[in-house]
Amino acid sequence: TERKAPTMDGTTAAGARPTKLLRVEVWGYLPRDLPAALRQRLALDADSRQELELAFLGNRHTRLLDGEELLDAAALAASHCEPPR
User: Fold this and answer.
1) Separation CA 3–CA 54 (nearest Å)
2) Taking the CB of residue 14, how many other CB atoms lie within 10 A of it?
3) Are 62 and 50 in contact (CB under 8 A)?
4) What is the model's pLDDT at position 11?
5) For position 7, what pLDDT does the model report?
6) Fewer CB atoms < 10 Å away: N or C end of the chain?
7) Cβ–Cβ < 8 Å for 51, 29
8) Which neighbouring-strand residues pair with 55?
9) Predicted pLDDT of residue 47
10) Is the distance from CB of 51 to CB of 37 less than 8 angstroms?
11) What pLDDT sits at residue 74?
């Protein structure tokens, strides 16, 4: 998919980062596909059809564009889970 994303080159006259249309990779998850600990931390119903999305910009380096709060919640949920036996 393609999205407008901030470039790393300079700033606009208003001081914002310029954007351009770039190819991004989007990962989508339904709550039923997430581990129970993460669903609980996000207060999601497993039967919900609301998709959670992570968007990555990949070029020479991969950069997360959207979804940082989901990654933070996943890390917290994982830190409270028992390791598989």
Assistant:
1) 13
2) 5
3) no
4) 62
5) 65
6) C
7) yes
8) 26, 66
9) 92
10) no
11) 77
Residue type, 42: L
CB 57 within 8 A of CB 63: yes
Q: Per this entry, what is the length of the chain? A: 85
54-60 contacts at long range (C-beta below 8 A, 24 or more positions apart): 54/26, 54/27, 55/3, 55/24, 55/25, 55/26, 55/27, 56/24, 56/25, 56/26, 56/27, 57/5, 57/22, 57/24, 57/25, 58/23, 58/24, 58/25, 59/22
50 token code pair: 């609301």
pLDDT along the chain (85 residues), means of 10: 67 69 82 87 88 77 76 73 55
Q: Which helix (H) or strand (E) holds 41?
A: helix 36-41
How far is the first Cα of the chain from the last one, in angstroms, to the nearest whole number? 39
Angstrom distance (rounded) from CA 6 to CA 8: 7
